[in-house]
Batch of 4 targets.
Target 1
Amino acid sequence: VFSIRWGQFPGMLVSVGVGHIRFWKMAATFTGLKLQGDLGKFGATELSDIVGFVELPDGKVVTGSEYGKLLLWEGVFVKVELTKTDTDSGVMEKMHTGAIDVVFLLEEENCVVSGGDDGYLRWWSLAEIDEAEADYDKGILEYGITMQQEVRIVMPGENNGTKLPAHIKHVARSKDGQVWLIQDVRNGVVWKYDVDSKTCVSVIKSHAGPVTGTVVMQNFPGLVIS
């Protein structure tokens, strides 16, 4: 299990993890209140680990996937696979290259924001997501929507000490929404993104993988090397 959150309706929980999403609700039984979980059914959609997800105002759930698409869930079923429509050619493409690990709602902009393995944050219209429908008669589960905006979290080698594209794993926003802290697990960096200026600066740089050892420097109190 990678994440679990309360839903907007009382007694509702959603958990996600390796190859699954599960929808929980509180139920009255002979022995008291208990959580009962319904496993999400991918159906014809390719199975995927799920890390990022967000519940929409109407109760539907949007999740990321390992293969660059957003999945729109209604009840316990995938309603539609969301893709990006190229505004010039009209061709449908994957929303991201690689996994989508971050999905959250920007209510003030009426958008869903996604981010992941390719180092991009992308904005998608909530209205377009809400009206998305699969063509079940033709067996087409994909539905293309238009990207509203995108931000690349630093370019490798731009005097920022990174050699690889960012892998966005988590985004935390300030109360006023003007500053975002973005966890880049590929480079071991936490970036501070300023919404107004659309600039990124490094605030913490650490390891980009497991820490296998530490040593205390006795000659320098308070110094630890990892």
Target 2
Amino acid sequence: PRAVRSRTPCSFVAAMELGAVAPTPRVDLVLDPVARVAEQAAKAASHADWGPVFVYGAMTLPQSWDALIGRMPEMRAAKLRGHKRRTVRCGGFAALIEQRGGIVLGQLVCGLRPAERRLLDRVVDDGFELVEASVRCLDDFDGPDTECTTYFWREEFEDALDMEADWDVEHFTENCLPEFLELCGDLRQSQKAEGLSDEELRAVAARRQRPGAEEDDDS
């Protein structure tokens, strides 16, 4: 911000010329309009929405959000063109890969706070990367596409996918959801109670997904 010059009061100048001891005048910082807007934006950042994110697997389920952030965010049914959804063999998660002419149905999540979005990033496997995307909301089919981000499965890990069929929500709910909800709850409590760093939160997630994790936790 631009430096602000303060005018020295005449009475203070007169006192100094007479050799009197006077207190140093207090000068309040005056911000120019640009600096004032920047300060307001910084204060709001901790409560701001970091933008919508398109989810298409475990995070379409209300139970997952309740375990991860303790509330149900605003969600709108949406579709993503040019992709297909498959299953990660280890863990049963849904994965997104490119396919010309493909369509993936999911939910556009809005209004996540930074701490909540940080938790979402941490619960996602390292095989994913966050990418920009454009989806069409089904409640506004004739409207414009919505710019967002989503989690895309890394090409170098495609051999870990079951390429034969789409992700099955019923199979995931019956066989994988309880363990996933436990992971979400662990991450949420760790972040809330201990203020863990990104690296420490990721370590918690990796430990829970490792075979024999229950024995490790009990030791």
Target 3
Amino acid sequence: ALQGVTTLKEGWADLKDETADGEGTWEAHWFALSSNGELKVFRDHESSDDELVLLLHLRELQRCERAKGVDFYDFCIDLVSPTQTTRMRPIDRGDMQAWLGVLQTQMSAFTERTHMGSVITTLHQGWLEKRGEAVALGAGAGWKRRFFVLSSRQEQQGEAVDVQYYLHYFKSEEHASETADGGVIDLGDVEEVALGQAKELSVVTETRVWLLRAETQAAQEEWMAQLSAVCGEATGGAAEVVSRQQPPPPADD
């Protein structure tokens, strides 16, 4: 190993074969991320650098995010560069989140600055219904379907990396590429995330209760797990996570 270079995370994950002959098959490989910003992929954990299958430089990546489409439910990660997308599949959701966390943190140190000096990473996304604030005042029909995107924004603050978490929502998936087109919840302001009845969940801030409803119970539980983990991180553990039968009514401000 190079002097002063340490391995930050390593382990087994599947690599998707995107070549013409590969037909999208998955094969187990040994992934190793080092402190010099290199992600190396080997056939197994005993391989030497001479037997390298793939080498990715984090500074050349544009995005590191949870995979979209058919591989989304297998907890896959897309490593997107201008020329190719490398897709890895860690062993489970916990390991995916661990890989995402360390990859994003390292990307913030090595990538060319994007989005006005910060690195934006998508952690989770999908359709939810959102209950309007006007309901409490007796106006409006209430539930509206929106495309939600859970993301982190990393900025270099001197020697430290400042990470903030947001939940954006948009009228369509096409609008999600432009954050100015939608609304946003700053997850650093969250006091409580609560699991409700009928596939509902609520996100409570000092100024508002955001009442959301998933399409399935599985989606509700997935969003609850993602929001619980992220809000805990965003608030330094101050956000309370509860499961209750009746979510609170929306605030009437």
Target 4
Amino acid sequence: RFSFAYTPSPLCVPARSALASVLPYDESPQTMNFKDYPLDVPTWYSAAQKAGYHVIAVGKDDLTQSRVGTAADGSRHAAALGYDSYFRMQDKGATYAGRAPIDQFSSAMAKLSCGRNESGASSVWGCNRWCYGAAELPIGMGQCCSPLPGDQGGWTCPGLDQVGKHQEEYVDDYVAARAAELLGQVPDGKPWILHLSFPGPHPPFILTEAMNKSVEGRQFPPAFDNDKLSPEEHLQVRRQYAAEIENLDRIMGRLLESTDALRPESNTLVV
């Protein structure tokens, strides 16, 4: 249970728009998904930039969520939003939905060799389009998942992420490594802000081989008042989510160690 967590909205774009604009949900510039953040609304990133901070954005910022993407080099709207350096991506669905890479993450995955040979594709990006669901197969409708019954939405995903044994290429691990790289490039003596958004703990939960083994045999309490799934399916989803969170815990510990090593002089506030 998260006892010290807060979000202005349960939806991706409205939550991030409220954070970027420093406005409550009812006044936020975006109240639904699938739309870009309006560039005529100032962000706190821009305010920090004007105050002299070097602003780094890494991961799923969701402020350019239209299917156009953030561009293969991440530059789309980056200057207007107030980013000095960045490694940006769409969510797990959109990053694989196009017929060509649309962000920095998918562009990087297109250059890496697939770690599993189930799909017949050669790159991680191509293999995971088969796994997660591509343009003709919406997210969660790829070969690694099955849709939940009825009209409730969601998926169960017994298949594995196509990075195979290369955990460092899994989306959250890869994003965190890029954050450490960009942090190391901040000009000496310059104060900095790093906004890091992990895309992993969001359905569909598709694990790596190592993450799958980390929760093997783990038991969790049954779901409350939900008979849509079998007990086995409930347990699978809970194990997968636990693996996602525990992987983030490991990654964040490593990133904080990197921060101390790269910026020993900094008085870092972690939010």
